[in-house]
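ok trying again, last paste got cut off:
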Amino acid sequence: MIRTRFAPSPTGYMHIGNLRTALYEFLIAKSQGGSFILRIEDTDRERLVEGAEDVIYKTLEMANMPHDEGPDVGGNYGPYVQSERKNDYIKYALELIEKGEAYYCFCTKERLDSLRTEAGGETVAKYDRHCLSLSKEEIEENLKNGVPYVIRQKIKDGKTTFHDEVYGDITVDNDELEDQILIKSDGYPTYNFANVIDDHVMNITHVVRGAEYLSSTPKYNLLYEAFGWEIPKYVHLPAVMKDKHNKLSKRNGDASFQDLIAKGYLPEAIVNYIALLGWSPSVNQEIFTMDELIEQFSIKGLSKSPAIFDIEKLTWMNGEYIKKMEPDKFYDWAESELKAAVKRSDIDLKKVAGYVQSRIGTSKDIAPMVDFIDALPQYSTDLYVHKKMKTTKEMCLEHLKRVLPVLEGLEDWTNDGIYGAMLSLIQEMGIKNGQMFWPVRTALSGEPTSPCGASELAELLGKEDSLARIRRGIEMLSADVA
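nice, full thing came through this time. structure:
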């Protein structure tokens, strides 16, 4: 059975690239009826960020990617946590020493720094295997005296070839590899060692990670061979790019999953969009539910080319998801933005929600679209001029003067009532519909665009405020055309 794992380090927010890796791991497993494992790789104790583990759990929950197994936590699956199995890794490292595939290294920081100095200080020099030549007696004496040490992998001579499901066969000369540290001086394993041990122990069949790990893969394979273990299948993913030359990076201020949620994007839209950042479905389709992604996903659809994160495309896709939301669900999601934008107690916010739902890309688009409701903004009478409708300021002034008494005497202040009264006047005057509705809509909103038409706006604002705004429009136009 296919088994994949998402193995993030709790060092901050969920980067978009990390979330895409998790998604592909989830889809590879689920598309084949397999298992998706969550493993927290927290052995780099200096980089841990408080609360980062909770960010990982919350992100996977919001993204609808539950993991399948782990330690029991109150009846639920918790993640596997590397730091809780510290002694297991040391056991495996000692086994490698016994096999002659690893060795104790007692070199001080000062000596290692001197290697870099001798290399010019610009690049990190390879370790010179100084401690590989220590005698058994010297090693035992150092251990007995408590001399600090690390355990290093002994890289064998020759070449290492491996197959990647995306990039094909890759061969690396082992001379390019360094005797990497397996166990650090604090007793914790390095990421490079712990992930090999855990992937084997957890029977991971497909290792999915960023293409930046391609160069490290030969070292992992040499460890598998040293233990006599089966090597998993590798799926290395190209980078997610900000543009053609720069990778998407939280360090450079690029959005994380949490940032996008805070900016008004829906989790399911984000997941749908990042699924297409490096994967091409076999069907002509862009909008996918998670079940549809699981049904359609195939490793064969993964690309070698880096994918560029296009915020405009995400915003479009988010808007498509918003349009398809049930009205009540949309209102619940948008309620806080609506209440922050519209303070008037006499306004039906559910009606406002209905007007804006099909017009926004994110929830943050709501406020600028409806902020005219609380108070008419300062605006220029140039807004009344509409080339397509062939309106002029003089025409709009005349039409507002004609419609005002009609609306003042209207008792049925509903959308249907207002629309009917205006339509009767239009027919009586023999003008085009837009030549009446445009100036009324402009007077009511003071904006070049609005979430609904003139009659809907008038009903929403109420009779008193609507008439006051129309009178204000008459005053402004009268002063302008005088």
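cool. The first strand starts at residue 3 and ends at 6. The chain has a mean pLDDT of 92.
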